[in-house]
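for the writeup, i need someone to sanity check this before i put it in the appendix. the sequnce is what the collaborator sent (i think, or maybe the updated version? ugh). structure was predicted straight from it, no edits. if anything looks off just tell me and ill rerun, i have time this weekend
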Amino acid sequence: MKNILIFTIFTTLFTACKLSDQAHDEHVHDAKLQLTAYSNAMELFAETDPFVIGINAGILAHFTWLDNFNPLDSSEVTVSLIIGKEVVSQKLSEAVRPGIYKFDIEPKVQGEGKLIFDIQSKKGNTQLIVNNIRVYEDEHEAHHTAEKIVVSETNTTVFTKEQSWKIEFETKNPSVQPFGQVIKTTAQILSSQGDELIVTAKAAGVVIFTKDNILEGKTVSNGQTLFTINSNGLASENTSVQYMETKNNYLKATAEYERAKELAKDKIVSAKDLLITKTAYENAKTNFDNMNRNFSASGQSIKSPVSGYVKQVFVQNGQSVAAGQALVSVSQNKTLQLRADVQQKYAPVLGQIKSANIRLLNDNQTYSLEQLNGKLISFGKSANNDNYLIPVIFQIDNKAGFVSGGFADIFITTITNNQAITIPNTSLIEEQGLFFVFVQVHPELFEKREVKTGGTDGLNTEIKSGITGNDRIVTKGAMMIKLAQATGTLDAHSGHVH
């Protein structure tokens, strides 16, 4: 009975150990290598079986364009495993799914080499190289070695390539660049001098609108009649009377000159009298032409001097106006000025202004001064009694729908020799007053990491600590990774599923 009990215990332990070994072997054989490589144009992320002589290794490769982070379209891709002088290759003309290619490579020799991916696409030829590829002789050793390659999964989130291809997504290394003092303030948007013209009355009278009512915002063309100023009924400065007098004088002078020319042919009129008649005619013609350009029997015609839009109307229909009074302002809205008033403490650095970034308040879009073909025009050298701030004025092209008279946030940057790590503002995630970024572990695994921030110029933010210039971070799509982390639908241990 005792012997039977001992045999039963031994058999149970042996079976348990055997099952444990089988489970361990199965776990080992699930080991995958994650490979990442970059060229100037493309990103490669591949999951592959460990490489063993005489055994097919499956390679699931994902190809992403770096200019838009979209998947590689249908292209011809060749993978080559090179160990010394031994080369094993496979060429595929079609993807399993957009951007995804599945290769099978059977190594022939043991040793260390490299994988080369050659892509022939509509954009040209691209090559991606993965170095330090090891081919093993023993399958068990290969899988155990692959298992020991530990990928840190602390505070990480899985975000697959298929997910990133469906959204606006981007990863890149932080920039190390000069980052000086930034002056943040509010700027008023104004029309540039010469871009806005005020039309005035050339004579006194009553304003009569044309049949097309002149309203603020209405588009007008060069030479288009905007108003008529009628001075009929005025005791003095009656332009209608002046117009008719000038016209009659011109007609009379014309008739006398024509008559004098005919009489001069027969020597009835002397050359002196002809010259006097001609001079009177030319003076009358000059006066009439001048009057006729802007006036008629019905009054003075007020025309637009440029093509643009009506910015502001200063008069009403039927209103009496004096000569020189402003009637309407017409703006071309091509170039604008940004007037920013800064505190006096920034006066020492105003001479070091390098550029500026402008953020619209209505859509929260930020533009660099270079994008708007802008430049610094001037900055104040002193303050005045009415305003103790110092003005800084920029000129920009109106490429982004700026509204004259409105306001925008402006970040004025200065020249410096101090180098700093900077990242786009779109990289930052704020939680309870702390800032985080997602650092790429590999192209489908991202670590959430806290960073200490410095100043911002509206587009980029200085990073004091938390990342280095060698870390690759998510610059677009960080919020979607945060949502994926919050939902917890994907597990970092679940492996890649296709």
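Residues 2-29 form the longest helix (28 residues). The chain has five domains: 1-27, 31-150, 155-179+417-498, 181-195+333-415, 203-328.
thx in advance!!
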